[in-house]
Amino acid sequence: MTNKTIVLDFIRAWESLDVDAVVGYFAPDAIYHNMPMEPLVGVADIRAFVAPFLAGASRAEWQVHHIAETRTGVVLTERTDGFLVGGQWVRIRVMGSFELSDGRITAWRDYFDLEQFNAQMAKIAATQVQEEQS
């Protein structure tokens, strides 16, 4: 199995909204770094971030536009990650870099526009407040 195949399977795990499946792809001391934020180190920290995020979504769809594996096994992705939250889609363009060892992700870095993501989440929150007040 290639690293590229493992990353594609990892993406399907996100789409299943299964926290255990997602976290199961990481090496115990893995680093997950959404570049606009502080890095998460280790499976426990990654789970603590992923679990509430996935719990807030009713669906996830990640569209892979491009994927490549380097000679050294690093997998690069260009994606649009989508999450259905409160009945509305949040979609964000992402460039991702995955380093793997022995079939596990040891480092994952995603590059995206945090302001764009936060604006979409704020819109959803405002809609939910309006609905509650109606």
In short:
With 134 residues, the protein is of the alpha+beta class.
Q: What number of domains?
A: 1
Q: Mean pLDDT across all residues, rounded?
A: 95
Largest sheet: 6 strands, mixed
- Portion of residues in beta strands equals 35-45%
| Total beta-strand segments | 6
Write down the CATH class. Answer: Alpha Beta
CATH topology: Nuclear Transport Factor 2, Chain: A
**Order of the strands making up the biggest sheet:** 2-1-6-5-4-3
Total helix count?
Answer: 4
What is the rounded distance between the termini?
Answer: 53 Å
Sheet/helix structural class: alpha+beta
CATH architecture: Roll
Describe the global form.
elongated
Question: Helicity, in percent?
Answer: 25-40%
Gyration radius from CA atoms, angstroms: 15 Å
Q: What does the model show?
A:
The chain has helices at residues 3-15, 19-23, 43-55, 114-133, and strands at 26-34, 40-41, 59-69, 75-85, 88-101, 104-111. The protein is of the alpha+beta class. It has a single domain (3-133), classed as Nuclear Transport Factor 2, Chain: A. It has a 6-stranded mixed sheet. The N and C termini lie far apart (53 Å). The mean pLDDT is 95.
Topology:
Blueprint: H1 3-15, H2 19-23, E1 26-34, E2 40-41, H3 43-55, E3 59-69, E4 75-85, E5 88-101, E6 104-111, H4 114-133
Parallel strand pairs: 1-6
Antiparallel strand pairs: 1-2, 3-4, 4-5, 5-6
Describe the structure using short key phrases:
6 strands, 134 residues, Nuclear Transport Factor 2, Chain: A, 6-stranded mixed beta sheet
